[in-house]
TrEMBL record:
Lineage: Eukaryota, Viridiplantae, Streptophyta, Embryophyta, Tracheophyta
Record-listed E.C. numbers: 2.7.1.-
InterPro entries, alphabetized: Hexokinase, Hexokinase_BS, Hexokinase_C, Hexokinase_N
GO BP field: glucose metabolic process; glycolytic process; intracellular glucose homeostasis
Species: Arabidopsis thaliana x Arabidopsis arenosa
Single GO molecular function: ATP binding
PROSITE patterns per the UniProt record, alphabetical: HEXOKINASE_1, HEXOKINASE_2
Keywords: ATP-binding, Glycolysis, Kinase, Nucleotide-binding, Transferase
Gene Ontology CC entries for this record: cytosol; mitochondrion
Protein name: Phosphotransferase
Amino acid sequence: MSLMFTSPVLTPTIGSFTFSSRRSNYIVMSAVRSNSASTCPVLTKFQKDCDTPTPYLRNVANAIADDMRAGLAVEGGGDLDMILTYVDALPSGNEEGLFYALDLGGTNFRVRSVQLGGKKKRVIATESEQISIPQKLMIGTSEELFGFIAAKLASFVAKEKPGRFQLEEGRKREIGFTFSFPVKQTSIDSGTLIKWTKGFKVSGMEGKNVVACLNEAMEAHGLDMRVSALVNDGVGTLAGARYSDEDVMIGVILGTGTNACYVEQKHAIPKLQSKSSSGTTIINTEWGGFSKVLPQTIFDQEMDANSPNRGEHLYEKMISGMYLGEIVRRVLLQMCETSDLFGQFVPVKLSTPFELRTEHLCKMQEDTTDDLQTVGSVLYNILEVEANLNARRRVVEVCDTVVKRGGRLAGAGIVAILEKIEEETKRMGSGKRTVVAMDGALYEKYPQYRQYMQDALVELLGDKLSHIAIKHTKDVSGLGAALLAATNSIY
Ligand code: ADP
Ligand code: MG
């Protein structure tokens, strides 16, 4: 099997901590039942409810593929929006000049400059900066959010070294704007926000042209730049990865949220009302919106009920980084309340939504010590709880259950897209290699998640995997967005 996972091998990191009594942060549970047996009914039921055996995964892959077809047939036909991106041409390698990428994802905002030198010189120079988005801007007004972005962009451009970056005379600086939320694209350089996801709820934006919002803010900051391509991070990843590998057909993001984009044959898109039905175009699946046949537990339901986008994006809520830690927290809380997971107390921090993050699960699962020292210290530092070895083991079991389900479901989604591509192109059947470009910190930094995803691919694709490569293409979405600005330059 030539399935290639090209992610870096990670070494566990062990932090240092001070142990002191923090009893004031506990709620005394007088009604807690003592349960010293090694079984825990909450955990056992949760594991059962999260189970995704191969036939179940096959159902999920088929249901995703059905919704892909439904979404390609008519607008709103299925859970997956299957958005037309207006990107028909992926980068060829001939692109030249100075271009920019702006990336508004979830946790961070990134800005990048790229000096492209054509086929021979490729990327001559590139510079980037990452800025975390203040929490209050995620739920503020569009003027505040875009004003912040424009201000950061202005200071980035002001720092530019003239010798390294050169803008051709008479040209404006052109931007590829990666806006990683569901957008109804109206042309390559305009689109309206369909809905916020990933905890964002910025007022005055839904139904508005996101490029116009950015343009207004840039103008207000005296910035003479123009957005030439509005893309999604999946499209950016696909375009950036294609720059160095022409077999890349799919771009998948597994970070705060999740999405996938792929190269589709125009003749397979009934809703595409264009004269030409030949050639290919990029489809942004918005697969995070898939919400059928998923193994939803009571914990998923409760988390969903408390989310700003209730009832929506259930697939995203099971497989992406923003939510895995929160699901684990909810399970642990119930284990605490119904059995004495952490003794007779329920730690206050365990009752705080999103206090336990996916990064923490990852750190705990990397613990190879006999007494699960790292697990103990993560629990102490994050949840302010002293956990004995039995409790630590149970916590790891909960993490593993959630991460296994997430990774396997993500794998089923990739299979659905691979099979859809194969249905239209028969490329794998004819011996052609197909590459899936992966990005996002969840995929990059969580080895167990990657492994579970790989297991699902092996189970569902078997021998067909011999022509498929899963490639970790770190941070290429910025390059991809800049390349698409070049491909769609007005000059
Ligand atoms: P975004 O999706 O916001 O563009 P990233 O791709 O950097 O940004 O993803 C950030 C998300 O990845 C975080 O919200 C977190 O859920 C997850 N993540 C970050 N670091 C780790 C880690 N070490 N292990 C597992 N997941 C992580
Ligand atoms: Mg991102």
